[in-house]
Amino acid sequence: MKKLLIVLAALLLLCACGSDNHSSKVSDGEEVIYTDPKGKAYTKQSLYEDMKLNDFTTYLSSSLITKIAGFEGLDLDELQKEAEEDAQVAVDAGQEYYLVYYYGSVENYIKQMVPYKALDLLCKREVENSFDTYVSSYIPYKAEIVYFDDLEAAQAVIEAVNSGENTFAYACSENGYTDVVSETIYTDDDTNLPVEVKDYVANNQPGLSGIIETSTTITDTEGNSVINPRYYLVNLISKDVNDFRDEFTDLMVSTVDSNMVITNLLSKYDVSIHDQRAYDLLTAAYEVLK
After folding, report:
1. What is the chain's Cα-based Rg?
2. Distance from C-alpha of 164 to C-alpha of 236, rounded to nearest angstrom
């Protein structure tokens, strides 16, 4: 079994050995960070001990994820390069102030983005490994879906598309639809779509639908409930997931429980934690480490 050695924090390089009180020592711990007016030195070890008084689970988790990613074969150098490129793009766009404000420095932003990117790839791998299960559970399709409050506008879109005058998106905009119309991945699990639209997709092949009439209830200024009709149009692009496999995978990554992914990976390794405070925080976050 592989040996995964967790030695406290992402921001401090710690020695692998522990002391009698189950506390790790910082490499070069006697190095002085600053000296106060009374001549008392504040060392790297002092900083480390102060950190332990706070909840630094986020830093521990970042270190843990990075180490797992390395054991799982991810190219950490490439992720570092990507994070640096992202930071440079932000700086070139005049956003350095925001990176410093939210992350403390550009360097800290890069350090935090590496485990973030690693976790995203590990979650993507989880989706790819169980791809057929995700497909059968979510029943994905690609479509352009809009609705109108005006029946005549919806009918005008159908006539313009069927006559070959306009694309679906252009016909919608020409008839008063103000939102962006784009090919989007939907699933049968989508709670934003009415059941009438889902039924249409389930029972029809790609192409432009007729008008699908639904209704929505709104409350007026006097507190009265008013039922208004809505007229949906579905331009069904494809129901074959092989036509949009990558897009569906990316969508599913957002549904993955990242803690579950980390927990499953941790069960593959023998984890040693050389600090009691780090142990307490990590086992609270990942019960599998107990």
Report:
1. 27
2. 17
Distance CA 214, CA 220 (A): 19
Cα distance between residue 34 and residue 23, in whole Å: 23
Q: Write out pLDDT tens, residues 257-269.
A: 999 999 999 998 8
Question: CA-to-CA distance for 168 and 171, rounded, in angstroms?
Answer: 5
Helices marked H in 57-105 — which ranges?
A: 57-71, 76-92, 96-103
Least confident of 27-31, 89-93, 188-192, 241-245: 27-31
Query: Can you give the pLDDT at residue 219?
Result: 76
Instruction: Please give the Cα distance from 155 to 168 (Å, whole number).
Output: 12
Please enumerate in sequence order all residues whose Cβ is within 8 A of that of 179, keeping only pairs 6 or more positions apart, or say none.
Answer: 146
pLDDT for 19 beyond 70: no
Structure-model confidence comparison of residues 183 and 22, the more confident one: 183
Asked if 141 contacts 200 with a C-beta cutoff of 8 angstroms, the reply is: no
List of residues 6+ apart from 105 with CB closer than 8 A: 99
Distances (CA, A) of 66 to 50, 62, 80, 86, 260: 24, 6, 11, 18, 16
d(Cα 233, Cα 145) in Å, to the nearest integer?
Answer: 6
Coil, strand or helix at 43: strand
Count CB neighbours of 219 within 10 A.
9
Strand partners, 278: none
Type of residue numbered 174: E
CA angle 270, 130, 73 (to 5 degrees): 45
Distance CA 250, CA 142 (A): 14
Write phi, then psi, for 72 (nearest 5 degrees): -85, 5
